[in-house]
Amino acid sequence: MTRSDPPAVRFVEVSTDHDGQRIDNFLLRTLKGVPKSLVYRILRKGEVRVNKGRAKPEHRLAAGDVVRIPPLRMAEADEAPMVPPVLAERLRAAVLFEDRDALVLDKPAGLAVHAGSGIACGAIEALRALRGAGYLELAHRLDRETSGCLALAKTAEALRAMHAALGSRRSEKRYLALVRGRFPPHELTVEAPLAKNQLRGGERMVEVSDVGKPASSRFRLVEAYRDASLVEVWIDTGRTHQIRVHAAHIGHPLAGDDKYGDEGFNRVLAGFGLRRLFLHAQYLSLPLGGERELAVSAPLPEELTRVLDALEGAAR
């Protein structure tokens, strides 16, 4: 299914994660699948504006800047993705909340939030294709293998409010994760800066590093099993792979994590039926301006509850 309506101008507010990034790199990241030549063409022609002013490719963005992205016809930027009927139905059934300003999706594990790195269609591209013309932007991101609450903004004003809340820690994001070993009974806060794109064995990783960006996670034990623990995690920052790296850093890697996890532990959990990363974004709250606040929860997927049932049964 493709959109027949003409493309619309997009206004994207720069988040703290992109503070200091060059505008050309920001556009290449935001416009996944758009040819690099087209990105530089619209910059050269002055069609991209930052805070209503023209921007050269080397212009560096600041958090809070508003970037105007011109309409890009699909003939110029590859055709809008064909959304398989199975995916279309999954996305329609996954909507947890929607009003005039926001949409919250219970993102399935295995679905990327956007296209790129060999992925032709992510959640945002599929939703835009299914819904036709209109404003729709990701307010934040989830790893491809993480399920749960994913917020999208339907207006530029809502996106600014969401980014402001996320940047000032007026939001709340809670996750459920299954980790290796017996977790301590008290709440544990991890303050460990994270650096992206660190090479390890030829693979790009996120690592705890003194030169990284600040990152804070709080862990609380929910249920202890024989060799694993279900924990609730609050994140005060939203760094790439934050929970996965912080959990491994404190000696409790996530079950099913093939990048930062423990191979032996993963094999054991596979015996209990685990076929994915055990990380689920279960709750999200965001102020939307004024007295309005978005608060949504997503139930633990059935494939994860079955693993917990199996662990509990083995302990009897």
How would you portray this structure in words?
- The chain has 316 residues and is an alpha+beta fold.
- Helices cover 24% and strands 29% of the residues.
- The protein has helices at 23-30, 36-44, 85-93, 123-131, 156-167, 242-249, 263-270, 302-314; strands spanning 10-13, 49-50, 53-54, 66-69, 95-98, 102-107, 137-138, 147-153, 172-180, 188-191, 194-200, 203-208, 216-224, 228-235, 279-289, 292-297.
- Strands 5, 6, 7, 8, 9, 10, 13, 14, 15 and 16 form a 10-stranded mixed beta sheet that branches.
Which characteristics define this entry?
about 325 residues, alpha+beta, ten-stranded mixed sheet, four-stranded antiparallel sheet, 8 helices, 16 strands, globular
Low-pLDDT runs: 74-78
Helicity, in percent? Answer: 10-25%
End-to-end Cα distance: 50 Å
User: What gross morphology would you assign?
Assistant: globular
Note the main sheet: 10 strands, mixed
Strand content: 25-35%
Number of helices: 8
**Helix-strand makeup class:** alpha+beta
* Topology as a string of helices (H) and strands (E): EHHEEEHEEHEEHEEEEEEHHEEH
Write the layout of secondary structure elements.
Elements lengths: L9 E4 L9 H8 L5 H9 L4 E2 L2 E2 L11 E4 L15 H9 L1 E4 L3 E6 L15 H9 L5 E2 L8 E7 L2 H12 L4 E9 L7 E4 L2 E7 L2 E6 L7 E9 L3 E8 L6 H8 L13 H8 L8 E11 L2 E6 L4 H13 L2
